[in-house]
Specification:
By secondary structure, this protein is of the alpha/beta class. It folds into two domains: 158 residues, no CATH class; 162 residues, Rossmann fold, CATH 3.40.50.2000. Helices cover 45% and strands 12% of the residues. It contains 14 helices and ten strands. Strands 7-6-5-8-9-10 form a six-stranded parallel sheet, with helices on both faces. Helix 11 links the parallel strand 8 and strand 9. Helix 1 packs parallel to helix 5 and helix 13 runs antiparallel to helix 14. The C terminus is likely disordered. It is found in: Membrane. One of its GO terms (molecular function) is glucuronosyltransferase activity. This is UDP-glucuronosyltransferase. One of its GO terms (cellular component) is membrane. Its EC number is 2.4.1.17.
Length: 349
């Protein structure tokens, strides 16, 4: 319970910092008469914006431009809750970690999360923009009404990933639009991949927002990797773990899509960011998720519900068992030989 309260406190702090900076940016722009005149004289046709931080929304209304959203998140949370019917009896609220299969206790928990999200939106986010709207818009200007007035919503989900839910005619689903066939790897990286033999390669990345985990967690992960027969490509920034095995290659940057599409790749250890998970889906790679913040828990829950992912708390050290179990699942469907080659490793756990 204390851990949840700490996470909520940190999240609220992040929200306050982001929206405070956004208000300051908007105030600076709207006070700059020359800049606003220049933008108006450019005769833009529309505003393409992400409404999670409503700078583009407010600017579009000030310039009287129609809006197209590139959207996953709004001030409430997930974008559907702001525009489409969202029965919380089977539509999980962001942050709940629930699936669409809910009993009485799960629905009660979902209701509590719905209430928390409403409080976040109406008591935290919306009031931060009150003075801005009062100073630069006619009386009665309503941020929620502004947010809901977009002509078209390009929603960053696809129902290969998302749970079933009601939609609206002006919602277009573009989840995974960035996915593409893999390109050839650089020669040195290709040589490393081929050196894995029949065991294959595990790819690990925690994305661009997280530089690293606590030292003891990194050491535990490195130890688990060192005991595996697979090779490992790990996007890693920081001090090299002392327990790192010879089978693990540390890189500050990886061509993630190209690695996930490589025939030698067997699993993806990831934080659960949306783009990375869609790339894993596209290339058919199972995922071991280490959700850390924002939407990552809910993303991993969606893949786990479909049987193509496992979840591991970053604060616990059971990485080897989880990775081997994931690899066994993958190997069972792809290669009976690879399945048998991993069985002896379960005796080490």
């Amino acid at each position: 319970m204390m851990g949840l309260l700490v996470q909520m406190s940190e999240f609220i702090g992040i929200i306050k910092v982001a929206h405070t900076a956004n208000c300051a940016m908007l105030t600076t722009m709207l006070e700059n008469k020359d800049l606003m005149t220049q933008i108006k004289m450019a005769n833009y046709d529309l505003m393409l914006t992400d409404p999670a931080i409503p700078g583009g929304v407010i600017l579009a209304h000030h310039l009287q431009l129609p809006m197209v959203y590139n959207v996953r998140w709004m001030s409430f949370g997930e974008g559907h809750f702001s525009i489409a019917p969202s029965p919380i009896s089977y539509v999980p609220v962001p942050g709940s970690g629930l699936t669409d299969r809910m009993g009485l206790l799960e629905r009660t928990r979902n209701l509590l999360h719905y209430g928390l999200n409403l409080i976040q939106e109406h008591w935290l986010v919306i009031p931060m923009y009150s003075s801005l709207l009062l100073n630069y818009f006619p009386p009665g200007a309503d941020l929620l009404a502004m947010q809901r007035s977009a002509e078209l919503w390009l929603v960053h989900v696809d129902f290969v990933f998302e749970f079933p839910r009601p939609s609206m005619p002006n919602l277009v689903y573009i989840g995974g639009f960035q996915c593409r066939p893999a390109n050839p790897l650089p020669d040195e990286l290709e040589e490393f991949m081929q050196s894995s033999g029949d065991h294959g390669v595990v790819v690990m990345s925690l994305g661009t927002l997280i530089a690293g985990l606590p030292r003891e967690v990194m050491e535990a992960i490195a130890t688990a990797f060192a005991r595996m027969p697979q090779k490992v490509v790990w996007r890693f920034i920081g001090e090299r773990p002392s327990s790192l095995g010879n089978n693990t290659l540390l890189l500050k940057w990886i061509p993630q899509n190209d690695l996930l599409g490589h025939p030698k790749t067997r699993a993806f250890v990831a934080h659960g960011g949306t783009d990375g998970l869609y790339e894993a889906i596209y290339h058919g790679v199972p995922v071991l998720g280490l959700p850390l913040l924002f939407d990552q828990l809910d993303n991993i829950v969606r893949l786990q519900a479909r049987g193509v992912a496992r979840m591991q708390e970053a604060a616990t050290y059971n990485y080897l068992r989880q990775i081997i179990a994931l690899l066994l699942w993958y190997s069972f469907f792809l290669s009976f030989f690879a399945f048998n080659s991993l069985l002896p490793f379960l005796e080490l756990l």
